[in-house]
Amino acid sequence: MEKIPMTPAGLAQLEEELRTLKYVERQAVIRAIAEAREHGDLSENAEYHAARERQSFIEGRVSELEDIISRAQVIDIATLSGDQVRFGATVTLADEDSDDEVVYTIVGAHEADIKSGRMSVHSPLARALIGKHLGDTVEVTAPGGSKSYEIVDVRFG
Fold this sequence. Notes:
DNA binding, 2 domains, 3 helices
């Protein structure tokens, strides 16, 4: 079984989603199905079919989350240090064309949110950065063409 790297915060977020689905959403959909059944003929009951569809989604997501959590390899980034980019690093990059700076934290795929600055370890940019050091230049092929970045800061925790 392949391990899934993630931060302690990412694992906590998935565990909270799982708890909500199991103990809040699951109970609500059971009540909705029971209520819809009281309306009679199930073959033409849109509320019943919607509730069953929601139940199916919840059960699928519960199974998915249980699998992810069971395979989680939690990496405590507070114990990491140095100037080499690796999982958990917060990296400041300078675009070599425009000198614009961007900051990303390299996290697991299930906790990535590029709008919040959390980039998946499996993304092309993260793969290019892993193993590089402060001051190195990386080149990444993006949909808009090739981009070069200089690593201007590497932090952990």
